[in-house]
């Protein structure tokens, strides 16, 4: 058994593992895909102190840093169930799809999240070639260009306001008959001169020239007409889904969006179970934040372990 088991091998999980092993705790990391979302990222320009890097390079650096220590890394290990300890200090159990069960006195949940995809032709093909999901990350790559933001909830409208300040023109495309964002955000959006808002518009395709995005096609749900917009970028903002399906019956409290609820010390409602990064209620989902949160969860796990003898 481990003293600390980290579930998830993205920036949050890697940071957590480095921090607990450096405290002398026997640490394991089990991840479905070590590296996490970083593996799907191309240019990274906001990883503070690193002017520019690329996802696969950062993922390799995470793995190398964890590899410097005596951490058991179990890749391709998908957790499917958490059974918390029956008393503080006891062993939690994590069951995996491959039939394995691991035990640990403290667990750090860092299973991340995934952007909801539109699921239309061209989206996957042009991912990182004009199709983007993170305005904080990729907004500046579209300086002066024309972009669309798909989704009229708070994140879509915030993204459109943010991008309008950087890019040449923004078209916000919403499927529904009206935007769902807070009124104050909608008012701000409509006050911006370089923004158009389309409602009742179903995005049906992202088009490109083989190299990069060149436009999008949508169906006007009122007239049934198919229309095209020429542009250079498409930001998909229809939801970030936390990877918590496997925690449903664990007793770990989730928000109404399915995020793990944590306090300021990254503790969940279950003693000895901590959580970090995109999978949690922490606001703003970014690499530097996930790393900070992973470190915090690890230090809290340390604090827990020194206060709770094996029960
Ligand atoms: P993740 O990176 O999602 O890692 C989760 C880990 O958990 C993975 O190892 C996964 O395989 C594993 N896992 C999931 N479910 C299970 C399970 N059931 N059992 C076991 N393991 C599981 N952020 C920036 O700061 N700058 C950027 O430029 C940037 N660009 C981005 C571009 C794209 C295309 C995307 C998708 C995201 C981008 N982000 C960027 C966001 C950033 O990648 C995330 O905030 C960060 O990776 C979150 O780290 P995490 O460790 O919390 O989760």
TrEMBL record:
Protein keywords: Disulfide bond, FAD, Flavoprotein, NAD, NADP, Oxidoreductase, Redox-active center
Cofactor requirements of the protein: FAD
Gene Ontology CC annotations of this record: cytosol; protein-containing complex
The UniProt record lists the keyword Coiled coil: no
Co-factor binding details: Binds 1 FAD per subunit.
Disulfide bonds: 134-137
Gene Ontology BP terms: response to reactive oxygen species
Annotated residues for binding of FAD: 3-18, 268-278
Binding site for NAD(+): 146-160
Domain FAD/NAD(P)-binding: 2-294
One Gene Ontology molecular-function label: NAD binding
Family, as annotated: Belongs to the class-II pyridine nucleotide-disulfide oxidoreductase family.
Subunit architecture: Homodimer.
Designated name of the protein: Thioredoxin reductase
Organism listed in the record: Croceibacterium soli
Gene: ahpF
Included stretch of the parent chain: 212 to 522 of 529
